[in-house]
């Protein structure tokens, strides 16, 4: 199995664990660190709707908890026919730990549908470098 296949399978496996009783829209995200470790997360909704968290946030949290701090590649998997690109907030979350040329694969259960660079999804972004030389 290729590295990308492994990432895809991790995203699919965790998507099934999503807690999404309100939107009924399950999302899974799996990221690989430069040393090849995979971390995944799913969306976790809440009866107080705004408190729910996205799949990407869960994957990043798992990475940080394990001592990782860089995203080499990420797969985001949604449901349905539409492309489930990361929401705006999650683009910024990914940006914190990624580079402009980091690939974000957008998948459905059928496979990877499109691949973007972070720069394409979040051009002219604000990040840690912007806080240097204050
Ligand atoms: N969702 C994610 O988990 N990631 C995204 O990038 C887009 C949206 C979740 C949040 C909510 O639980 C559901 O999808 C519907 O918006």
From TrEMBL:
Q: Which Pfam families match?
A: dCMP_cyt_deam_1
The record lists the membrane-crossing segments as none
Q: Carries keyword Metal-binding?
A: yes
> Which key words tag this protein in UniProt?
Hydrolase, Metal-binding, Zinc
Question: Where is the CMP/dCMP-type deaminase domain positioned along the sequence?
Answer: 2-129
One cellular component term (GO) for this entry is:
cytosol
* Positions contributing to substrate binding: 43-49
Q: Which residues form the active site?
A: 56 (proton donor)
What family does the entry list? Belongs to the cytidine and deoxycytidylate deaminase family.
Q: Which reaction does it catalyse?
A: 2'-deoxycytidine + H2O + H(+) = 2'-deoxyuridine + NH4(+); cytidine + H2O + H(+) = uridine + NH4(+)
What protein name does the entry list?
A: Cytidine deaminase
Gene3D superfamilies tied to this protein: Cytidine Deaminase, domain 2
For the protein in the UniProt heading, the enzyme class is: hydrolase
The answer to whether the entry has keyword Iron is no
* InterPro entries recorded: APOBEC/CMP_deaminase_Zn-bd, CMP_dCMP_dom, Cyt/Deoxycyt_deaminase, Cyt_deam_tetra, Cytidine_deaminase-like
